[in-house]
Design goal:
This protein starts with a helix and ends with a strand. The strands form 5 sheets. An 8-stranded mixed β-sheet has the order 1-11-12-13-16-10-9-4. A 3-stranded antiparallel β-sheet has the order 5-7-6. Strands 8-14-15 form a 3-stranded mixed β-sheet, with no helix packed on it. It has 425 residues and is α+β, with helices and mostly antiparallel strands. It is elongated and about 110 Å long. The chain contains 13 helices and 19 strands.
C-alpha cells in the first residue's frame, strides 16, 4: 500500500497518479486518509499528555500521604482514575482511526510512474517492440483446440467430467510438452542466477494482503472457507511473502527467486470465443520470477527481467510483441508494467503470456519487507518485482498453432532436448 509519507508529503502527485489509473474518487479518498491520520496523531498527542499527567500525579500521591495530606492524596487518586477512563476512550478512538485508515489504504491502488502512458483500456497500451519469426501456415490451418484433439494432446471434455470447464487434461506428448516447457523455463531462470523455490499452492489471508491480491482480487481467488486459505493465482504470492516481516542486509540484494507452480483463477464472468481452449483456464502451470531489490537498482532489475522473458520467446521461435501498459489497464499493485504477447496465426490474435511489473515500495510496505542500509544502518523499504517466465497455456496454444505442418507439429530446437521428440505426428 502507499506510504503515509508519500500521501502526506506529495498529496497532489498521488492524486494525479491515481487519476491516471482511473481510480474513482481519488481526491476524496486521499483526503479521508489524511483526515484519519490527523485524527490518529492528534488523539495520540492527547493520550501522551494524559499519560504524562497520570505519571506526574502518581508520583505526588506518595509524598502527599507522607505529609499527612490524606484528602489531597485521595483527590489525586480520583483524578488519576478519571484520566485513565479518558485514556481508555482516547485509545479506542485512536485504534479505530488507525484501523479505518489502514482499511482505506488497502483499497487504494499503487501510483503509476510518470513513464506510464495515459489511457483507459488495453486499446490504449503502447507497442514498445515487435520481434520473432514470421509464421506461414498451411491452408486450412487449425486452432489449437482442434490440433489437441487431432493429435490426442489435450482432452477438454475429460477435464469437464473430472472437475469442470477450464481444467483440461494433458495426455501423451501434450503432457510431455508441458513438462518440457516447465523444465526449460526453470533451467533458463537458474542459468540467469535465480534460486528455485518450491512454495505451497495455498496461502493464508495475510499472504494475500501482503502482495495485494486481497481485498482487490478476492472474487477471482478460490477460497477454502473451512480453513480460511486461498489457492494461489500465481507463485508471486507465496514467494514474495517469504520476505514478509523480514529485514534484509543490503549485501543480500537483489534477491532473485523463481518458482514453478500450478495457478488457480476463478475468472468469474469469462465466456465467449476468446476463452476457448487454452486461452483462459481456471488451473494452469506457470514459472514465475520474483525479485527484491534496492530502490535505486529496481529499474535495472526490471530491465533484466524484461530481457530474460524476451530471450525465452526468441528461443521458442514465436512472434511476439512487448506492450507498455497504460494507466487504466495496469494491475492494482503495479507502478510500471510491460506485457508480452505471442501471435496466434491460426486464431489471428495476440495472446498475453507474461506481465513483468515493478511495484516500487507498494507491496513492501504491506509486507514490511525492508533492508538495512550499509552506510546509514537505517532500515528502508525494498522494491519488489515479478514476472511470468512463462505462463504455459497460451505458449502451448501458440506453439501448436504456429508450428503446424502437413507432416505434424514441429517442436522448436530449444525444446527438443527437453521433449525427447522433434515432431508431434
Amino acid at each position: 500500500m502507499l506510504t503515509l509519507k508519500l500521501i502526506t508529503e506529495k498529496t497532489d502527485e498521488v492524486i494525479k497518479g491515481l487519476e491516471k489509473k482511473h481510480f474513482a474518487n481519488a481526491k476524496e479518498t486521499v483526503a479521508e486518509v489524511v483526515a484519519l491520520n490527523d485524527k490518529r496523531r492528534s488523539t495520540q498527542a492527547l493520550l501522551d499528555g494524559n499519560l504524562a499527567e497520570v505519571n506526574s500525579i502518581s508520583k505526588s500521591i506518595g509524598m502527599l500521604m507522607k505529609e499527612g495530606k490524606k484528602d489531597e492524596a485521595e483527590q489525586a487518586k480520583a483524578r488519576v482514575a478519571e484520566i485513565k477512563e479518558t485514556c481508555k476512550t482516547l485509545q479506542a478512538e485512536m485504534d479505530k482511526a488507525a484501523e479505518d485508515m489502514r482499511n482505506l489504504l488497502y483499497t487504494i491502488p499503487n501510483v503509476p510512474y510518470d513513464s506510464v502512458p495515459e489511457g483507459l483500456t488495453a486499446d490504449d497500451n503502447v507497442v514498445e517492440k515487435m520481434g520473432g519469426m514470421e509464421t506461414k501456415l498451411p491452408e486450412n490451418a487449425l486452432p489449437h483446440w482442434e490440433l489437441a484433439k487431432k493429435y490426442d494432446l489435450i482432452d477438454f471434455d475429460l477435464g469437464v467430467k473430472i472437475t469442470g470447464a477450464g481444467f483440461p487434461v494433458y495426455k501423451g506428448k501434450g503432457a510431455r510438452l508441458q513438462r518440457a516447457l516447465i523444465n526449460f523455463f526453470l533451467d533458463e531462470a537458474r542459468d540467469a542466477g535465480y534460486t528455485e523455490i518450491m512454495p505451497p499452492t495455498v496461502v493464508n489471508a495475510a499472504s494475500g494482503y501482503g502482495t495485494g491480491q486481497l481485498p482487490d482480487k478476492e472474487a477471482q481467488m478460490y477460497h477454502c472457507e473451512l480453513d480460511d486459505l486461498y489457492l494461489i493465482p500465481t507463485a508471486e504470492v507465496p514467494v514474495t511473502n517469504i520476505y514478509r516481516d523480514v529485514i534484509l542486509d543490503e549485501k543480500e540484494l537483489p534477491v532473485k527467486n523463481c518458482a514453478y507452480t500450478q495457478c488457480f483463477r476463478r475468472e468469474a464472468g469469462s465466456y465467449g470465443k476468446d476463452v476457448r481452449g487454452l486461452n483462459r483456464l481456471h488451473e494452469f502451470s506457470k514459472v514465475e520470477l520474483v525479485r527484491i531489490d534496492k530502490p535505486e537498482h529496481s529499474a535495472q532489475s526490471h530491465k533484466e527481467m524484461l530481457d530474460h522473458v524476451e530471450g525465452l520467446l526468441q528461443k521458442l521461435e514465436l512472434p511476439y510483441r512487448i506492450l507498455r501498459l497504460c494507466g487504466g489497464d495496469m494491475s492494482f499493485t503495479a507502478a510500471l508494467c510491460f506485457d508480452f504477447e505471442v501471435y496466434s496465426e491460426a486464431q489471428k490474435r495476440w495472446l498475453e503470456v507474461s506481465s513483468v511489473s515493478n511495484f516500487d515500495t507498494y507491496q513492501a510496505n504491506r509486507l514490511k519487507c525492508r533492508y538495512r542500509n550499509a552506510e546509514t544502518k537505517k532500515t528502508e523499504l525494498c522494491h519488489t518485482l515479478n514476472g511470468s517466465a512463462l505462463a504455459l497455456p497460451r505458449i502451448v496454444a501458440a506453439l501448436l498453432e504456429n508450428n503446424q505442418t502437413p507432416e505434424g507439429i514441429r517442436i522448436p530446437k530449444a525444446l527438443v532436448p527437453y521433449c525427447g521428440f522433434d515432431l508431434i505426428d
